[in-house]
């Protein structure tokens, strides 16, 4: 199962992923999400956190000098790829992987795109948020066979969490019934 959650910026994609990580706690999910850095109500950048909430590093910021830029933010590709190197084994070994976000900042990293490709070629459950708009890698992923796109709106965002949690948990319950030695 490969699910991509999309929708307009600010609609709640990251919140959905974080809520799913709590619902899937017993499945020991891995992956990461991004969170805004705010100072006095002004967004200054983005940090990377593991799905358990622990800090992994800074992804982008207004004070970061980098040739990789998205708007006013410099993207720290070196720090992001260091995090990916340290986390890749755990991510690929997990039965449930949650990634926030497949977006322009992250796609500056070749290592990130390679990790996504590896995940798509495994039997791992992948739930990722993806930019609503994008070209290249982002556009290609959305058109790929075997990908289910879930478009988030204000009307469906709360129900999506419950529906996905129910679907995923029933899948893993069936897997356990069919294979009692499963690591899940």
Structural class: alpha/beta
Major β-sheet strand ordering: 5-6-4-3-2-7-8-1-9
Radius of gyration: 16 Å
Shape: globular
Mean pLDDT: 91
Keywords for this structure?
single chain; 184 residues; alpha/beta; nine-stranded mixed beta sheet
Q: Could you outline the blueprint of secondary structure elements for this entry?
A:
Layout: E1 2-6, H1 13-23, E2 30-39, E3 42-50, E4 55-61, E5 69-70, E6 73-75, H2 77-93, E7 96-102, H3 110-120, E8 125-130, H4 137-143, E9 147-151, H5 157-178
Parallel strand pairs: 1-8, 1-9, 2-7, 7-8
Antiparallel strand pairs: 2-3, 3-4, 4-6, 5-6
Helix pairs in contact: 1-5, 2-3
Please provide a written account of the structure:
It is a single chain. With 184 residues, the protein is of the alpha/beta class. The chain contains five helices and nine strands. It has a nine-stranded mixed β-sheet, sandwiched between helices. Strand 2 and strand 3 (42-50) form a beta hairpin. The protein is globular. The mean pLDDT is 91.
Could you provide a short overview of the structure?
The protein is α/β, with parallel strands linked by helices and 184 residues long. It has 5 helices and 9 strands; from the N terminus they run E-H-E-E-E-E-E-H-E-H-E-H-E-H.
């Amino acid at each position: 199962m490969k699910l991509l959650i999309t929708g307009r910026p600010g609609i709640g994609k990251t919140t959905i992923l974080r809520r799913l990580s709590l619902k899937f706690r017993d499945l020991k999910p891995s992956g990461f999400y991004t969170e805004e850095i705010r100072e006095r109500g002004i967004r200054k950048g983005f940090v990377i956190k593991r799905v358990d909430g622990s800090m992994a590093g800074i992804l982008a910021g207004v004070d970061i000098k980098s040739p990789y830029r998205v708007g006013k933010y410099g993207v720290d590709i070196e720090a992001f790829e260091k995090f990916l190197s340290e986390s890749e084994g755990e991510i690929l070994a997990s039965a449930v992987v949650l990634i926030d976000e497949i977006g322009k900042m992250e796609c500056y990293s070749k290592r990130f795109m390679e990790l996504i490709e590896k995940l798509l070629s495994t039997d791992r459950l992948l739930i990722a948020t993806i930019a609503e708009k994008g070209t290249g890698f982002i556009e290609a992923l959305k058109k790929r066979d075997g990908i289910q796109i879930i478009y988030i709106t204000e009307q469906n965002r709360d129900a999506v969490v419950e529906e996905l949690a129910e679907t995923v948990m029933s899948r893993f319950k069936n897997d356990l019934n069919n294979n009692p030695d499963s690591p899940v």
